[in-house]
User: What shape does this take?
Amino acid sequence: MVASVDLDELPQKTAAEVRAALDEVDFDKFGGRRSRPSAPPAFGRGAADTFQYDLEIIGTERRSLTVHEPLPDPRIQALVDALLPLAHPE
Amino acid sequence: MPASRRHSLACIVPPDLLRDIIRNGTEQQRETAADTMAVDQTFRTLRSAFAAMTGAHQAVMRPMGGMGGQPQRTVYDQGNSNALALGMVARTEGQKAVRDPAVNEAYDGFGATYKFFWEVFGRNSIDSAGMPILGLVHYSRNYANAFWDGQGHMFFGDGDGQLFVRLTKSLDVIGHELTHGVTQYESNFVYQGQSGALNESMSDVFGSLTKQYKKKQSAAKADWLIGGEVVGPALKPALRSMKDPGTANQYDKQPATMDDFVVTAADNGGVHINSGIPNHAFYVTATTLGGKAWEAAGHIWYDSLRDAKIKPTSGFKAFARATVRQGQMRYGDTSAEVDAVRAGWDKTKVKL
Assistant: This one.
């Protein structure tokens, strides 16, 4: 699933929701750099079929974040929830 | 200790034979076999512990946990929460059906999967020792997934209506996820690269066999599709096809042979993509043999999952060799079964 989102091209309400969710996430706290996709899942050893989310935000600076389920923070969950409806299978 | 039991231990009566007696013998035979297994278990446990201490493969001798034959299921309702803590108990073992179809589908699916592994392989639940089977339905909101958490729980989402509908509706999905638990206790394939693709393939193989067993289907009649009952309009007709990898839906990128092996960093090195190759090898093996896919092909694959030479990091070649080895042990070096196994790996271009 891929979502490529330009906030300027979204409806105002949707853009506001995504922007608000983005503002809440502390990228410095959660790494900020793209972690390797092979990072172990956050569930126990042997976990399978959980989702991994790769986020790349391009604004005044470029920020990246890779997180596995279970998501480490409700604010990241909110950001994912805001982006998922905009995503499509590739 | 009676002489007959001493002789059973000294002659190393294999557990498979004892399990057959327990299932099919007279009352006296079943009692004796059960007693033998109970005593045998102690010694196998000791041998397994000794093997672990001396560095031998841990998966060779697994203790049998109790009599088996009855699952211990509990289904929890997560109430559309993302919390990982167990929600409200929705249905326990032996309880009648409840109003919530997701709860009943999870309960019945667990039962069918347990029954398949018990009746076909003599395996008592996920860990072969009667492990309780715990399902958590209505996880999160519009969650288009189901997964095994590696800690004894299977989570089900309700679907988003586009990618998936309610994921408890699919028996092969339920069998797929519980098989991740079985794999965890056997080969424990690392969820990355080729070993990860094998991990995924084992789940598709035994998930599909769970469905075929329930429906009493032959290999020829089975659809060999994964998730056909739960994909939404965006992913019709199914999530994956073992018969024709790459054709299940418009986004399906699975290869059928090593010629098209996908090198990628995504998806833990393509575990859901390259699983198409060993999936197809199993399909070719099973349909070449004909009859019921769980009878010969299923046994060979199950034996291979527990093969002493298979490691958590084993790749396609090592597993393919294990299937030939296990086929030879079970059916003979020049059997039709081994020929069919070789045909499967030839077709998928996995070099032996």
